[in-house]
Specification:
27% of the residues lie in helices and 25% in strands. With 374 residues, it is α+β, with helices and mostly antiparallel strands. Strands 1, 2, 8, 9, 10, 11, 16 and 17 form an 8-stranded mixed beta sheet that branches. Strands 13-14-12-15 form a 4-stranded antiparallel beta sheet. A 3-stranded antiparallel beta sheet has the order 4-6-5. The N and C termini lie far apart (47 Å).
Length: 374
């Protein structure tokens, strides 16, 4: 251990999940360490679409619906604190969001799915509206003739995810926290009073450690007695040129950013760790966007990207403290933007206190354990 730097808490992973948790711990100042693999990592944060979204979330897991709604409520305060700490505006807008359906069958499936969602026992119900084409057109000028209708929820919104990531890191720097980029963690060794991290930047030590490394947690979790049953899910995004404002509300698959850029996204592909772009998927996304808004047919595509979501077996987050190595925590989720507020304002204080809130118990990996037959 000689020569190794020592900290109160080490957060492994400097993306949106690790960054938000670290932001909630920033009062530790120089006693807080964030280590990040760097540009070689599978960087989900830089592929994020930027939605702060509630609509449709929590099917089969009502507690996740409540967790998402809580984060939505906390977001205005979180954004304000982030601006005060970093001087960066993340362009938060929470005026509602829309899911567009291109034919009657889609609209019927969507309506049935939302009705079943809010009817779940224990689900924290919220308001939404099913809109026919005429009603939807009042929200969305320039709507295509193919659109049958859609659903609108007043709780939805969006922000600038790149500004969010930048603001988190700026706030941590201003608070005097230590950031070590390009330092993948190779090994975690648990001792009686600390965790030693063997990294590419040398040996580091902390009393507590937070695994927020996304898919990197597959290798890290077993080192501290935790489970990370994760898989990658590819999403692709088309980035169109800047246009005059035409989209007053974000859609689940289409949004206009604060600088006028139009993003088309939300593909969900099970293909392992492949991050390559796929022309058939991009073409299908573009075709749906043009059917929804015909004016996009003449818009130029500036670039496209693919990134890997961090998915658990049921698609919901995993939050847990190790039972065999107390002081080691794990945080995995694919909604790094939507959940950033509760990661900073609920999860981080629990880590600081040494015990996660009881409300997070349902998110333990123990839900994946299957009892063996006698």
């Amino acid at each position: 251990m000689a020569g190794g730097a020592q900290f109160d808490v080490a957060v492994i992973g400097g993306g949106l999940v690790g960054g938000a948790i670290a932001f909630g711990l920033r009062k530790l100042g120089a006693r807080l360490l964030v280590v990040d693999e760097g540009d070689r990592a599978l960087r989900a944060a830089r592929g994020n679409f930027g939605l702060v979204w509630v609509q449709g979330k929590g099917a089969g897991f009502p507690r996740y619906g409540a967790w998402t709604q809580r984060s939505r409520r906390e977001w205005p305060r979180f954004a304000a604190e982030l601006f005060d700490a970093s001087g960066i505006d993340v362009a938060l807008s929470q005026r509602g969001g829309i899911h567009v359906c291109l034919d009657a069958a889609e609209l019927r499936r969507r309506t049935d799915a939302l009705a079943a969602l809010v009817a779940q026992p224990g689900f924290e119900a919220y308001g939404y509206e099913v809109l026919d084409r005429a009603a939807l057109a009042r929200h969305l000028p320039g709507l295509g003739a193919d659109v049958a209708g859609g659903t609108w929820c007043p709780l939805d919104g969006h922000c600038n995810p790149l500004a969010l990531l930048y603001a988190l890191h700026m706030a941590l720097a201003r608070a005097g926290c230590v950031f070590r980029p390009g330092a993948p963690v190779l090994r975690i060794s648990a001792r009686s009073d600390r965790f030693d991290l063997t990294t590419a930047a040398g040996l580091l030590s902390a009393e507590r450690v937070v695994l927020a490394a996304g898919l990197g947690n597959l290798k890290l979790a077993p080192m501290v007695g935790l489970t990370a049953p994760l898989r990658p899910q590819k999403g692709q995004v088309l980035v169109l040129e800047r246009m005059r404002p035409f989209l007053p509300l974000p859609l689940s698959t289409l949004r206009q950013t604060d600088d006028g850029t139009v993003l088309v996204g939300d593909s969900q592909e099970e293909g392992g760790f492949d991050e390559s772009l796929g022309t058939p998927v991009l073409s299908a996304m573009a075709a749906r966007a043009v059917r929804a808004f015909p004016a996009l047919k003449s818009a130029h595509v500036n670039r496209a990207w693919a990134a890997l979501r961090v998915m658990s077996p049921d698609g919901f987050p995993i939050y847990e403290q190790s039972s065999t190595h107390p002081g080691a925590f794990i945080a995995n989720c694919h909604s790094g933007v939507t959940l950033a507020a509760v990661h900073a304002q609920v999860l981080a204080p629990g880590i600081a206190a040494g015990s996660l809130p009881p409300s997070l118990a349902p998110f333990s990996s123990r839900r994946f354990e299957v009892p063996q037959a006698a």
